[in-house]
Every structure is written in C-alpha cells, then in structure tokens.
Amino acid sequence: MTAPQPLIAGNWKMNGTSASLDEARAIAAGVGECPARVAICPPAILTHRMSQALAGSRVLVGGQDAHWDDAGAFTGDISAEMLADAGAKLVILGHSERRTGYRETDDIVASKVKAALRARLEPIVCVGETLEERKAGRALDVVTGQVRGSLPAELSGQTFSVAYEPVWAIGTGLTPTTPEIEEVHRAIRGALVEQFGEAGRAVPILYGGSVKPGNAAEILHADEVGGALVGGASLKADDFLGIVRAL
Ligand code: 13P
Q1: What number does the ligand 1 atom closest to the CA of 169 have?
Q2: Are 232 and 226 in contact (CB under 8 A)?
Q3: Assuming Cys at both sites, which of 68, 106, 162, 206 could form a disulfide with 227, CB separation 3.0 to 4.6 Å?
Q4: pLDDT of 145-203, one tens digit each?
Q5: pLDDT band at 1 (very low <50, low <70, confident <90, very high)
Q6: Which element (helix H / strand E) includes 91?
Q7: Is the CB of 62 under 6 A from ligand 1?
Q8: Is 33 a catalytic residue?
Q9: Which fold has domain 41-209?
Q10: How far is Cα of residue 176 from the mean position of the Cα atoms in its chain?
Q11: Do residues 56 and 69 make contact, with C-beta atoms less than 8 angstroms apart?
C-alpha cells in the first residue's frame, strides 16, 4: 500500500481576528507545489471568511472542535454541519486542551468523530500522553488506548488522520527525540491496522507539539510520521511555510 499523502495543519487555537486573514493569504500564496496537503484551523468565527479568503488556493480550512450532536439546545457550541456550511473541510477533535480543559473522554471524542463524518468533515483525531504517564512508562498504553477509544468503527473506509501530540510537548518548546516519536507512531500504526485492517496503513499519523521550522525536517522525515499539527508556529506565515517546505 502506498504511503498516505502527508497533511500539515495549523491549529490557531484561540488566536486571530479578521486582521489575521492576511497571514492565511500569505500562507496560501507561498505554499507552492509542496507534496503535502496543507490546512489552517482558525477559531470557528473566522471559518467562513478564511474559506472565502483561501478560495481557489490549495490551503484547506478546518475547525478545532465540533459538537457531537447535529443541532439543538447547546448554548455556545458549534456543530460539524455549521463548520462545513462555513467552508471547513476538516476538523480537529479530541485535542488535549479539550480533553483536559473540558473533560472530553474517548467516548465523547468518538461521538464527535461520528458527527464530523455525518457532516462530511475529515477528522483529525488527537491523542497524547502527559509527562506523568510518560515517566511512568505508560505512554504507549495511554496513546493506543486513546486511539482505540476515540476512533469509531464508522471511520472504516473514510479519510481521516490521527495526531500524536504529547501533552508535555505542546507550547513548551520541548519535543520527544526522533526515536521516541517513531516508537509511538509505530504503536499507533499497529492499533490502526488492528482496528481497520490494511486500510489502517493509509491513515496519516501527524506529529504535534513544538514543531518549528528548525526541527520540522527531522520530525517530518521520521518513520511513520505523515505530517504535522502545528500550534504557535502556524500563526506566522513565514514560520508555517518554513515547516511546510521542510517536507
Ligand atoms: P504548539 O505547536 O504550539 O506546541 O502546539 C501544538 C498543538 O497543540 C497543535 O494542536
């Protein structure tokens, strides 16, 4: 089976206003012929304007979260269908900042994945261990457990990716060593093949956590790394393009 096409996605988190659309335009203008699919996931309120700003470019727009239900009395929430209606093609689900800050369990993440599929959004499902879990030697168990629990059977035959984001590497400037990244990515691949058979080999496994232009080439060329989920460095076009060009 051929290697999956890499995906490099920027997660803007709760950063950016309409002025930031220029940064997105600069990313689209500079992305060129790189072999990866490229996406930006802005705050939900920018989804529509960013989709319009990037129309005709090869940069996709994604959401950062979506509700598990399609509509209803959920004050302040946003559905997958709304994101799709605003032009999103992908959606990040189960980010550790949602798992910890909003107590999202694997079951909740799996329900959100199903909602995303109903809306024809491509899920990017995040997993990752805390520093305590790594120190206790439980990183592989935690991460493969999250993969099994967060990926519903409905993903079979669908396009999606998994992002390995060690919690302790997010926004800290710390990254695992390349062998550590490869060890976890191979374990995730094993869990994907167990669950989805040979089709599990076509799922890109992104790495996320302090990816910068300076470390991107080594990370992106590591075994079983199929792209990156980039936080802080995706906010500036030059930095994000430096990562995209490292592939
Ligand atoms: P940083 O790249 O800022 O460490 O964030 C990673 C992340 O959480 C992407 O989803």
Answers
A1: 4
A2: no
A3: 206
A4: 999 999 999 999 999 999 999 999 999 999 999 999 999 999 999 999 999 999 999 99
A5: low
A6: strand 90-93
A7: no
A8: no
A9: TIM Barrel (3.20.20)
A10: 18
A11: no
